[in-house]
Design brief:
alpha/beta; elongated; Rossmann fold; 466 residues; binds magnesium ion; binds adenosine-5'-diphosphate; 13 strands
Length: 466
Amino acid sequence: MNAPFLLVGRSVEFELRLRELLGARLSTVPGAFVTFGADAVAEQVEGSPKAVLLGPVLNFDETHALAETLTERHPGLAVVVVREQRSDLEDWVDELRLHAVVSPLASDDELKEVLGGVARWLVTNELAAADDFRPVRHSVDATSAFEEYIAEVEPETAPETEPESGARAEDDGELESSADTEGDSIGVDGVDASESIEEPEPAAPEWEFPPLDAARPTEAIAVVAPKGGQGKTTIAINLAAGLAKAAPNSVVLVDADLQFGDITAALDLAPEGTIVDATSEVAADELILKTTLTHHKGDFFVVASAPSPELGDRIAPQALGRLIEQLRGIFRYVVIDTTPGLGEHSLVVLEHVTDAVFVSNLGVPALRALRTELELLRTLGLLPVNRRVVVNQTEKNAGLTVKDAEQIIGAPVDVDVPRSTAVLLASNKGVPLLDDDPRDPAARALRALVTRIAPEAADTRTRRRR
Ligand SMILES: Nc1ncnc2c1ncn2[C@@H]1O[C@H](COP(=O)(O)OP(=O)(O)O)[C@@H](O)[C@H]1O
Ligand SMILES: [Mg+2]
């Protein structure tokens, strides 16, 4: 048996997926061998693979050494890196002679597209024979779907950049072609099987993480209140949804209400992982952290709440702080829903944010509690520079006006959000109010809060309307 694809990585889950897709066309070398060096890995390789997938969870040096050693032993070998797109990926593309980059979170179709592209490219450039990619014996069922991606070989569409078999870096043309493919997270371009056209170009997965703009500071926004039931979660969700319209997929919403986090319920999400996973030690690896995030179709990510209050309480406050810092390295906006009050976890959150939104309803006890909270935070030096006060669930005839509220709190109110049945309706549907009922008065007020925090969100809206 001579499998054309070789996988060297540290994720069993990814390996299983690839196995399902490729069947006997895949051979693997367990990630454990990587620790012993590239030569040790090369020793394990059977036959002569045509393409190697490196990752997930390999660092740059490991990937570099593997790419060098394996291409030396198997001239003409195509190299595909399995890794999230992030800001330093360009270095990888510059330094390594890559044929494609694919996200470990890519869908099966996207994986097939990339691998099919690589296969066709190898065949077109006579580095492999079409037969190398035919199904091998008992693998037929699980892999038949892959066929269409390698069936068409069109020599005249060969890309300009052929690998001279030895395969070391340094060649500019080659680098460019890798850079192109990376953005789309699809493989070597120019060789699409244009038979099955649903869309002319398969779009990049919606949830690719856009690279961070190094010139712009990231913002972490905590939504806090001394008491429960004031509207923290409602505000956090709609903030994330609103910010995501201005910065799609550059927003993460963290459910750090460790006792009664309910964001996944309010958004009707089946979480991939929880904040317990996201704060675990292994999640110090950014790639693993990303696998704990759940994507929302409104173009933002969610760190789901702890599965139980006990597990939530066990999260070390420092781990929560580290999570926020890590997320700030990946996202432009980190929105954090918090546990009511000023427990240790909330204080650590406040230490790690740039903005805070304080929430109260129009009741005297809640307003007084907010005043106390603000005073205490000022004493502790933990009042974030950017802070807004939101009075939520305001009503015409509540006996108190927003002016009264300002007097009690001892600070100006930035936004008042009227009580509206649309809030509960949206939450019961599992949809952010901003999307469910954008014209509702509460939605308007929440949008005003979004634009206070991110003025560019207003720009997007105006542009869209035009
Ligand atoms: N402006 C509003 N109008 C009507 N109901 C609201 C409003 N804001 C929040 N609610 C409702 O109040 C309850 C508590 O809100 P929630 O956001 O869960 O608060 P917290 O997270 O502070 O506990 C929820 O049932 C929510 O639907
Ligand atoms: Mg809540």
